[in-house]
Amino acid sequence: MRKEHTPSLNDKAYLTAVYRQYSPALLAYLYRHLRSLEDAEDLLLDVFLAALERSGFESLGAKEQEAWLWCVARNKVTDYHRKLKRRQGISLEFVPEEEYEQDYVTPEVVLLRKEEATRLQEHIKRLPALQQELVRLRFAHGLRSAEIATIVQKSEGAVRVMLSRAVKLLRKVYENE
């Protein structure tokens, strides 16, 4: 008689499967509420660490696990916003002037960067619609080729080729200026 395998939080394959199943939606939720990818990723890690620390998590059914993870994610967002309200700031008059990178934040540098970003946006708008979307997904949203391929329903290789062509085209436009 065979024993039925019960999942365990020590089982790496089980943890990976749970993470892969729920992390994309949870990350999107966290990012939508925090507007910072780094903070959203940190809270996502906290959600799954809480699952590791919860005794009996692996014995919950799939629906209960999902509901529990969503509840923890919502609570983490609430805690994050509470902490933001309580953070104490310090007046700039008490910060030594040498703490600033003077050249980095001068009005001229800010203006030049803004102009460069505007020029880049204009050049991107001249690309075909699909290439515009690929460039946005890759560089603005930081997605990888495999993730982009899923979104645009193309092969990963095709996405890489189209991205490469778009970047070469943009590079050529800049060289000609």
Description:
Residues 119-170 form the RNA polymerase sigma factor 70 region 4 type domain. It holds the Pfam family Sigma70_r2. Belongs to the sigma-70 factor family. ECF subfamily. This is RNA polymerase subunit sigma-24. It comes from Ktedonobacter robiniae. Helix content is 71%, strand content 0%. By secondary structure, it is an all-alpha fold. It folds into 2 domains: 12-86, Rna Polymerase Sigma Factor, Chain: A; 118-177, Winged helix-like DNA-binding domain superfamily/Winged helix DNA-binding domain (Arc Repressor Mutant, subunit A), CATH 1.10.10. Helix 1 (12-34) crosses helix 2. The N and C termini lie far apart (76 Å). 10% of the residues are buried. Residues 1-5 have low confidence and may be disordered.
